[in-house]
User: Which sequence fits this backbone?
């Protein structure tokens, strides 16, 4: 097999159904791209925020193995970076002669930069917005700007605003002609493609990390205009009260209940427009690659690090509420020389952990340790893998508001173990919007036992230390011993 170049475009917080084959957002470049490649329609991140998911993408490991549990730059992060001796796919590629180029968002470690992991890094690495938004606020004097609680509370709430006394007002959407400096990130990536001398011999890997469509959803006007006449409907589960779900879910929603239904609809419109903006940026990358003459032997991946609730259950952004909208992401590949029968859609469970072993196999590299992810090469070759997962797992210790949470999902059932509250069980074929929690219904006890068995087996296989037998913390309905039981 020919060793390909690799080009990765990773959006930030783009949910699965905005992209092909679901296409809720207008993304003409991605639509054309999907027809030329392979779409993985059921792809999941391991944890519902940036750093753990990006660390999984770069390592092929889950948080229990790579050690990144939270956004590493916040004050109370459980870790600042990767576990010792954890290698990224870029480490392997560099050692095997690849030329590596990095532009945009990193968010894997606060103690290492992409340059420490083999990448050539340009001036727009991380971006000033990311640095500002994710710093840890150790300087308490910075909070003085929010000391005027009476004016924050007393002034009328303006459109799209969420009042937060002592924190500052959050504006969920609006207009910004250059959100998050994504245009500059792509400018640098395009410049590198165009200026790189063709035919140098060494294969290359380019990573382009944009920050859109992350909240706040502030987009260039021309992309919002694309949706001016598009009717926007609220999700089917928008009015769900979540009374049968953990109290933290309801408390999280209470922030967004300040918004009117019309404001929720307009936020959806802005979010979809933001996805269209990302599509335009991605199209510029594809054009530059086509002009370079190297597209034929370049594996291009469009993917996101995690999703967004986008008004489902009345929520926005992402957090501990363990709904698939925060975990399910788009993932589409194109490689003219290496994908058989392009235009296909693969509906198998895929994890962000699967891309690192895929890149390494294509480069002819054997990793030094077993990875959690599995290579996607069989799907690219249009053949059935010898074995493939029938369950997808998630791991979270909380998005800075800590709480042990693990989930296991098959195509039929989804079980969520909430160490901080009661659990969840959803029958996905009849309840795809996750509205009816069946975890407390005794008639589904056999299902709960089976899902606990799957969850604990994955924990055993991947060194998950969330196990504690103490009487007040060992709260799962079936503990780890279930994986050793012969009982049905």
Assistant:
């Amino acid at each position: 097999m020919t060793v390909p170049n690799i080009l990765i475009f990773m959006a930030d917080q783009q949910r699965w159904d905005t992209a092909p084959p679901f296409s809720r957002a207008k993304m003409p470049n991605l639509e054309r791209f999907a027809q030329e490649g392979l779409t993985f329609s059921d792809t999941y991140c391991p944890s519902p925020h940036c750093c753990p998911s990006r660390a999984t993408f770069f390592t092929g490991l889950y948080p229990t193995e790579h050690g990144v549990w939270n956004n590493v730059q916040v004050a109370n992060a459980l870790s600042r970076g990767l576990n010792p001796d954890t290698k990224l796919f870029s480490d392997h590629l560099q050692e095997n002669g690849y030329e590596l180029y990095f532009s945009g968002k990193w968010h894997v470690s606060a103690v290492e930069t992409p340059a420490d992991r083999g990448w050539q890094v340009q001036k727009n690495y991380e971006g000033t917005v990311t640095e500002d938004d994710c710093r840890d606020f150790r300087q308490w004097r910075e909070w003085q700007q929010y000391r005027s609680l009476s004016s924050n509370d007393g002034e009328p709430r303006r459109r799209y605003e969420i009042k937060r006394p002592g924190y500052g007002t959050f504006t969920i959407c609006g207009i910004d002609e250059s959100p998050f400096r994504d245009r500059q990130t792509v400018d640098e990536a395009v410049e590198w493609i165009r200026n790189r001398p063709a035919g140098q011999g060494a294969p290359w890997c380019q990573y382009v990390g944009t920050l859109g469509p992350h909240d706040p959803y502030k987009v260039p006007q021309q992309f919002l205009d694309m949706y001016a006449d598009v009717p926007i409907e609220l999700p089917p589960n928008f009015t769900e009260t979540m009374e049968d779900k953990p109290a933290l879910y309801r408390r999280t929603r209470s922030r967004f209940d300040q918004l009117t239904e019309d404001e929720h609809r307009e936020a959806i419109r802005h979010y979809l427009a933001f996805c269209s903006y990302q599509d335009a940026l991605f199209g510029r990358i594809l054009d530059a690659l086509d002009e370079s003459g190297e597209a034929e032997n370049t594996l291009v991946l469009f993917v996101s690090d995690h999703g967004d609730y986008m008004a489902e259950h009345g929520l926005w952004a992402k957090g501990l509420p363990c709904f698939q909208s925060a975990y399910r992401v788009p993932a589409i590949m194109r490689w003219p020389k290496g994908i058989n029968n392009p235009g296909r859609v693969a509906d198998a469970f895929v994890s962000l952990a699967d891309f690192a072993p895929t890149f390494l196999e294509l480069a002819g590299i054997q990793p030094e340790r077993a990875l959690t992810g599995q290579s996607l090469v069989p799907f690219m070759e249009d053949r059935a893998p010898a074995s493939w997962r029938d369950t997808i797992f998630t791991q979270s210790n909380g998005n800075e508001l800590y709480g042990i949470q693990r989930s296991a999902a098959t195509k039929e059932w989804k079980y969520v173990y909430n160490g901080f509250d009661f659990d969840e069980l959803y029958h996905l074929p009849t309840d795809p919007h996750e509205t009816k929690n069946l975890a407390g219904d005794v008639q589904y006890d056999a299902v709960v036992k089976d899902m606990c068995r799957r969850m604990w087996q994955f924990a055993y296989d991947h060194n998950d230390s969330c196990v504690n037998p103490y009487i007040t913390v060992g709260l799962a309905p079936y503990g780890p011993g279930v994986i050793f039981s012969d009982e049905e």
Notes: Confidence is low (pLDDT under 50) at residues 124-134. DSSP finds 14 helices and 19 strands in the chain. The radius of gyration is 22 Å.
